[in-house]
């Protein structure tokens, strides 16, 4: 499966946010500017999402969008910010890629699912972690890379 990440600077996404597309994963933005840009992308995905496999993708549900936004707001400043994508079924996927970690997380309404070190012998699945928006579950937080 090839996952299209929303900070992919390809021309397919130009104008998505009303301006020329920027690769916010590597741009020299301040942490809070990048967090705000990720939040704007998530909110936009409630209306429009690209299809990574050629099929129609469901927009992100408002509840999943809200949970993802609360997650970003709760993420401590000493942690790397993720890349963001839609899973095509109404949920959000956060991705931390090497060299800034190796994990991915699906965000459903008030629920988090993480895979740490996917594809390797030390893979760990952290399923069904409730998230109300106040504190990130320790099992999830410990897998998110430090800056």
Order of helices and strands: HHEEEEEH
> How far apart are the first and last residues' alpha carbons, in Å?
28 Å
Uncertain parts? 1-28
Instruction: Name the assembly state.
Output: single chain
Helical segment tally? 3
Describe this structure in words.
This protein is α+β, with helices and mostly antiparallel strands. Helices cover 21% and strands 19% of the residues. The protein has three helices and five strands, in the order H-H-E-E-E-E-E-H. Strands 1-2-3-4-5 form a five-stranded antiparallel beta sheet. A hairpin with a 5-residue loop joins strand 1 (83-86) and strand 2 (92-96). Helix 1 (31-44) packs antiparallel against helix 2 (62-74). The longest helix is centred in the first third of the chain and has 14 residues, at 31-44. It starts with 30 loop residues before the first helix and ends in a 6-residue tail after the last helix.
Essential attributes:
147 residues, alpha+beta, five-stranded antiparallel beta sheet, 5 strands, disordered N terminus
Can I get a quick summary?
With 147 residues, the protein is α+β, with helices and mostly antiparallel strands. It is built from three helices and five strands, in the order H-H-E-E-E-E-E-H.
Task: Give the SSE map.
Blueprint: H1 31-44, H2 62-74, E1 83-86, E2 92-96, E3 103-108, E4 111-116, E5 124-130, H3 138-141
Antiparallel strand pairs: 1-2, 2-3, 3-4, 4-5
């Amino acid at each position: 499966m090839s996952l299209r990440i929303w900070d992919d600077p390809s021309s397919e996404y130009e104008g998505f946010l009303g301006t020329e597309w920027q690769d916010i994963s590597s741009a020299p933005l301040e942490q809070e500017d990048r967090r705000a840009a990720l939040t704007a992308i998530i909110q936009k995905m409630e209306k429009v999402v690209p299809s990574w496999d050629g099929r129609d993708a469901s927009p992100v549900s408002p509840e999943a969008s809200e949970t993802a936004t609360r997650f970003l707001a709760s993420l401590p400043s000493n942690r790397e910010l993720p890349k963001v994508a839609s899973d095509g079924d109404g949920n959000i996927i956060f991705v931390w890629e090497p060299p800034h970690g190796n994990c991915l997380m699906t965000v459903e309404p008030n629920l988090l699912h993480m895979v740490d070190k996917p594809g390797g012998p030390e893979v760990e699945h952290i399923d069904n972690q409730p998230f109300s928006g106040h504190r990130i579950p320790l099992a999830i937080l410990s897998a998110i890379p430090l800056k």
